[in-house]
Amino acid sequence: MKTTARILIIILLIVSHFIVTALFVWSSAILYLVVTLLSIVSVIQFWKSEKLLKISIPEILLSLFVFYVCLNNVFNGTLLGNGSLFNYLIFCLLYFSFVFLYNSDKGIVRFMFLGLFAGFSLELIVGYGQLFGVIPNVDSKFVMGGLFGNPGAFAGYLAIFSTFLLAVVCFYKDLFKSENFLFAILFSFFCAICLIILCDSRGAWLAICISFSFILNQKYRFTNTIQSLLKTKGSKIITSVLLLVTITVVSIALFHYKKESAQGRLLIWKISKDMIIKNPLFGSGSGSFGTDYGKIQASYFLNNKFSENEVRLADYVTCAYNEFLEMVIELGIIGLLLFVAILYFALAKQQNENSTKYNIAAKASLIALLVLSTVSYPFNILPIMLLFVICLFVIFRTEQYKTFTISKHNKLLVSIWFLAVLALTYFGSRQVYGMYYFTNGYAKVLKNDLKNGINDYKKANLFLNNSGEFQFYYGAALYLNHDYQVSIIHLKKAVRLNSDPHAFLILGNALQKNKQYNQAEQAYLMVTGITPAKLYPKYLLTKLYIDMQQVDKALKMAKAIMKAKEKKTTTAGTEIKTKIKILIDRYSKPNVKSLKKSL
């Protein structure tokens, strides 16, 4: 039974890397199967051990956090149909599966490390394959991104686990008897550092600098040496000033290194404040940032004064690039306080002589993850989320926290936990089944086989009725099939469930075809607010105004197009401006028919 559990943990940690690839459906199915089997094995092993269940204060907080997230999403109506939330909750509940196994098998920590290292090595192989052009990246915009497709996410993952590896290297003799494995770890570590540098991610650089400092301090205790040297008040003041100046200079340098990217994040945080005000205490439910942010941004650009720089920076985003800000928006202040309390117990407690060195590695990785969380979206990446849960498990189970022994209703609580895992995997599996038909239908639509593609979409709709992404693709396929009335139903649902500008744009097209001009105008206006720098939505809006015989509005929009500056000059943008210039040249003799012909 122990061997089975160890193998399942390794498989789980490897399979989680394939969730964002083209093998999403099959890897998700395997993931849910492994989670179910691991839960069954952990329950059987726990019951066979006949040991009492002991739970610490931070573990009680983790349980409360999971319960609060479920309850919050039930009341906000965002629980069902949210595949990402199911995975998030399943991984949090897996923590207790690890606890049950650890009660009778302390060796699972080492196998967790081996599984993490296997996944990490896989990412390195893919990363270097992409770098040398042997393996194509999932996202063609980037040369390399590992199995994540994005260099930022890839560098973030490498930074977090590289920190774990450095700690293992520093305390290797305390963790492994043989030195053979050390060379493999060192080789992987330096390979990862090279890729992190090449990925050009400031967040990852900052994460490794801070977390590496923590590890080296644990090894060499240089803060104690510094404190012994700073005996006078003057020396302490001078050191503090130098440290503050250094931090300020580094911060300014990192800001200006990718100034546009940094300003883009600041704009997102500025606009997001209205989302917090909406429901500060409890939030709007998981996934609500992606659902609402585009609409809030559109309102900002349509109803407020803004700078040209803000127009140039604004684009469609689905995350806040700050996990704590996003948590306040989605789970409210209560959710954030519970989460911060868990982190406090994980990081505030000092190591003692009985602490395993894996504890230091887990804390260092947790520090790197939290640094990254201030400027990126690590909790949206499944392998990082799973690594986060494992770090908490290692810290809470290898440190001495005050524990409570549950002597009564022991098996009842374990059974409730098991049923919760089964329920989540069931609903998650339904999503995966729907995604199977979704991906099949999408492939057929791309081949212009609309009839069979739409038939697959109909099957997927039974399981993905609450997925904004799916409703957009379903509605778009119906639009291409000239079934405008039905496409409008699905596209309206899509824009209610997310803020994708493409969904608003196709909705506008369908409404215009259906002669619902006023609603089409609102849809196009939303697109111009979500992506204010793009010319095509404004061009479609100009054409709509001409169809509505509102020439003054058409010419006003046409002049706005001529004044607009694209982020990057494109052939399509040049063609649009050429057509718009013809429209403006005819302004002296406004004739709707001639204007229609010119466009």
Q: What can you see in these coordinates?
A:
- The chain has 599 residues and is mainly α.
- Helix content is 75%, strand content 1%.
- The chain has 27 helices and 2 strands.
- A two-stranded antiparallel ribbon has the order 1-2.
- The longest helix is centred in the C-terminal third of the chain and has 37 residues, at 410-446.
- The protein is globular, with a radius of gyration of 27 Å.
Sheet with the most strands? 2 strands, antiparallel
Overall, the morphology is globular
- Report the portion of residues in β strands: under 5%
> How many DSSP E strands?
2
How many helical stretches?
27
Sheet with most strands: strand arrangement: 1-2
Low-confidence stretches: none
Q: Give average pLDDT, whole number.
A: 89
Radius of gyration using CA atoms only: 27 Å
The N- and C-terminal alpha carbons lie at a distance of 71 Å
Helix coverage percent of residues?
over 70%
What is the element string, with H for helices and E for strands?
Answer: HHEHHHHHHHHHHHHHHHEHHHHHHHHHH
